[in-house]
What we know:
Blueprint: E1 30-36, E2 47-50, H1 56-67, E3 76-79, H2 91-98, E4 100-102, E5 105-113
Parallel strand pairs: 1-5
Antiparallel strand pairs: 1-2, 3-5, 4-5
Region (Disordered): 1-30
GO molecular function, one term: Atg8-family ligase activity
Protein name: Ubiquitin-like protein atg-12
Amino acid sequence: MSSTEAAPEGSSTSETVVPPPTEPPKPKKVVVKLKNIGDAPVLKNKKFNVNPTDTLASFTAVMRRHLKIESNNSLFFYIDSVFCPSPDTTFEVLARCYSVRSTGDEVVELQYSITPAYG
């Protein structure tokens, strides 16, 4: 085969094309909407964007600072005013199982209290 002839279709050439490495897409943040129950302090900002890999325990630590609640006082989170998710649950799992579609976004709605609110 001369240098001016094209290689037939399906034949391999000595050069292989390697696609450029692509970065995995960044996980989409989970929107968390909070509502106070009972005598819990009211937040100015009720919506938070949380990493899907964050756990409820890490979110609780952040919320304690926002609400100015000391570590020796309780802070409870509830889903659908029914149950309290485990502290080691990630927001990815909460979004997949309990998100509510609101204005085009999937939102995890949590209620919070400083005293036990539901049985």
